[in-house]
Write a structure and sequence with these properties.
With 354 residues, the protein is α/β, with parallel strands linked by helices. It contains 15 helices and 5 strands. The protein has 2 domains: 12-130, Response regulator (Rossmann fold), CATH 3.40.50; 144-351, Hypothetical protein af1432. It is 50% helix and 6% strand. The protein has a 5-stranded parallel beta sheet with strand order 2-1-3-4-5, sandwiched between helices. α4 (95-103) links the parallel β4 (86-90) and β5. The longest helix has 24 residues, at 229-252. 38% of the residues are buried.
Length: 354
């Protein structure tokens, strides 16, 4: 086969399939012409997307938990990834599903079983069409802070892709958490724990608290009625799923220690002061301070935001929800600190109203 029309050196293809044998086939077909990353799970795919942007994605239609169509939606609603071309490679030959894949942004659809040379031709055709991709600059960013900012923003976009896509939810969470942290830094109780660096980190990373929600099935995430016990188990897993995604990124980028702060928020923000939360049932100060602050910001915003299963409450009612959770859901000292944030919370609530 002739691939001389384009320079494939350095182009990165992400292959996503829950079949190890299929991933081995991709490796044998593509390695040598492209940089190839093969992953079996959605968490691994998110970790790869967040740490190194691929030039093209080969995606199976029938993945566990997150389907190929749902993954296309996630990419479509994530600004950093919307322009990555996706080829669906699937044994699902239902014409309606094929049309739906194209309507959600797929660049091509290859039916299994397929001819290996044909797949290569389709890949190279896409690289030719998008123009300049093979020659694009890959100069490393020497400023670590810029890399951190890009990674955090990419993860925040992914966190909002399936939930609250059209709201200012994540912006408010970051601002609310920042306000509580700033107020806490002025108290005797938290002065030694909350530094300027802590405040800056929580302002950015509280927005990642629900990263793991992208792994919750659509029918559960948008269910209007009461969740079954099994469905609620899906929801509770978003804390560990999100933390595991960061763990995978850290394996590839051990220098990204700043993600440890986000890891604590993601994993522990549903713990309760009284020990009745999840995933570990921690209580009191055994819950990281960053997660205890984010828990207040998250609940306040959740009850003031329209959700598929509940109408929003007013600002005053939400304020009382936080006060009523003092010593039960929330750190009592943080709730006392929260009282001093009322004016700023009101400003944020009004300015970033959906």
């Amino acid at each position: 086969m002739n691939t001389s029309q384009i320079n494939t050196f350095g182009l990165h293809i992400l292959c996503i399939d829950d079949s190890r044998s299929q991933l081995q086939v991709y490796g044998s077909q593509l390695e040598g012409m492209y940089r190839v990353t093969c992953v079996e799970t959605y968490e691994e795919a998110v970790a790869c997307l967040s740490s190194t942007r691929p030039d093209l994605i080969l995606l199976d239609m029938t993945m566990p938990q997150v389907s190929g169509l749902e993954f296309l939606d996630i990419l479509r609603f994530t600004p950093h990834y919307i322009h990555i071309p996706v080829i669906i490679v699937s044994g699902d030959n239902d014409p309606s599903h094929v049309k739906e894949a194209f309507s959600r942004g797929a660049a091509d659809y290859v039916r299994k079983p397929y001819d290996g040379e044909e797949l290569l031709l389709r890949i190279n055709r896409i690289f030719q069409l998008i123009g300049g991709c093979a020659e694009k600059s890959r100069e490393p960013n020497s400023a670590l802070s810029s890399a951190q900012d890009l990674l955090i923003q990419s993860l925040a976009d992914l966190a909002s892709a399936k939930d609250n896509e059209n709201t200012h939810h994540l912006a408010r969470i970051g601002l609310y958490a920042e306000e509580i942290a700033m107020a806490a830094s002025k108290t005797n109780r938290f002065r030694t724990e909350v530094s300027e660096e802590f405040i800056g980190k929580i302002a950015d990373m509280a927005k990642l608290h629900d990263l793991g929600k992208v792994n919750i099935p659509e029918y559960v995430l948008h269910k209007t009625g009461t969740l079954t016990e099994r469905e609620f188990e899906f929801v509770k897993k978003h804390t560990s799923d999100g933390a595991r995604t960061l763990d995978m990124i850290r394996l590839s980028f051990p220098d990204y220690s700043f993600l440890d702060f986000a890891h604590d928020i993601i994993f522990f923000h549903h713990e309760r002061w009284d020990g009745k939360g999840y995933p570990e049932g921690r209580s009191g100060i055994a819950i990281p301070l960053s997660a205890r602050i984010t828990a207040i910001a998250d609940v306040f915003d959740a009850v003031t935001t329209r959700r598929c299963y509940a109408e929003p409450v007013g600002f005053d009612a939400a304020y009382e929800v936080i006060l009523s959770g003092r010593g039960m859901a929330f750190d009592p000292d943080l709730v006392d600190t929260f009282k001093f944030c009322r004016a700023r919370f009101s400003e944020i609530h009004a300015k970033y109203k959906d």
